[in-house]
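Researcher: I've got a protein sequence and the SMILES for pyridoxal-5'-phosphate. Could you write out the 3D structure of the bound complex as structure tokens? I'd like something to compare against our soaking experiments later this week.
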Amino acid sequence: MSTLTIFSSVPARAAEAVPAATSRPIPAVLGADLEVPVKGGRLVGYANLDYAASAPCLEPVSAAVSAALPAYSSVHRGAGYASQLTTARYEQARHTVRAFVGARPDDAVIFTRNTTDATNLLARCLPAGTTTVVFDTEHHASLLPWQKSVRLAPPAFPGEAVRAADEALAGIEGPKLLVVTAASNVTGELWPIAALAHVAHRHGARILVDAAQLVPHRRLNLTALDLDYVAFSGHKLYAPFGAGVLVGRRDWLAEGEPYLKGGGAVRAVGDGTEWHDDPEPRHEAGTPNVLGAIALAAACDALTATGWTALVREEERLIARLRSGLASIEGVRELSLWGDDHPRVGIVSFTVDGYSAREVAEVLSSEYGIGVRDGKFCAHPFVRHLLGETDGGCEDGTASAVRASIGIGTTQEHVDRLVEALRDLVNR
Ligand SMILES: Cc1ncc(COP(=O)(O)O)c(C=O)c1O
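Model: Sure. Here is the predicted complex with pyridoxal-5'-phosphate in place.
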């Protein structure tokens, strides 16, 4: 299989289901008119270029939460009308999320706190002796939760990722799980998840896709891509109310230890304890984050109603403008694993000659009202690899980069302001 074939299977399949026309305008985000102080005491409009960390709240998400609040009540356990209504809204949120990711009808949809919680939940449910195969390019949420793992070096090109996974999985006996990100939180680059799923299944393994940075930017279809599990966070999907989700095959989740032990996860407690077999109650003990789930579902609805064509077109226009602006500044270097032309979402990391990442981020904030992220983005091995560093502490300011990330609410002025600010900085 050529590199091109391996990679092109992802967008091609995903594209099949993209609606042809936009049905609604792109919704607004809260805080679009936020003003922040800069040096000298002036106020300027905030240029939020840190969506990959946490995206602002979409207006329809805020509206859905406000609409749910007056009847807010307990779920699953109350006979009162408000409790029944809130339960219905919570369970409807599950259906909405299931449809949003194109899950199979019998897939479990478990609400969690975030992606990290979702990967840790799956890690606790793996059959005994499972070996996980994971690339060093992963975010720590997908790199660290596994008891027994084989770590693969950053692949030089997408086909090499598939080849390395193939080879590693072939050498493992017993249950195995391949864990891979769909879109890198460092470079934004898209991974060949369809081809990786194919390879995993050929070796009798399952695949977990960390979709935290994909779902805010692209449509994901779990069934079409033949994925076993996906995880993502509401707060990166314009729904910052503390919920995330794990979606996927029921059997391991039905057999794994309940993630939290307490009310809701049990059918009966006497001398012994009878736990629910259904993954949702089994792993959602205690009162769940109902508003978080409603918010997450409202974000899924809002993005679907807008249509991916319009969202992707606007994001690609802005990210192309940003990247060509960065490329035009001597001393600014964009980080990339698979080269300039590889498809990516709206995330760009870079370094600036003569300045630490922290200095750049601080100047951008204090002088230009621009919010970016600096550091290693909870992907220490990957950032060190991209910077050609074999060493460098975690928080000591070495081997760090600056990351700008965009989404709904990002304007051309924000992008241009960042480029001009960096041009000013290198010319000082
Ligand atoms: C690719 C990726 N996976 C996982 C995570 C962890 O997400 P959370 O902090 O919401 O658990 C992040 C967060 O930045 C991420 O970018």
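Model: The radius of gyration is 22 Å. Residues 114-116, 139, 141-142, 181, 185, 210, 212-213, 233, 235, 244, 378 surround pyridoxal-5'-phosphate (CB under 6 Å).
Researcher: Great, I'll pass this along to the crystallography team.
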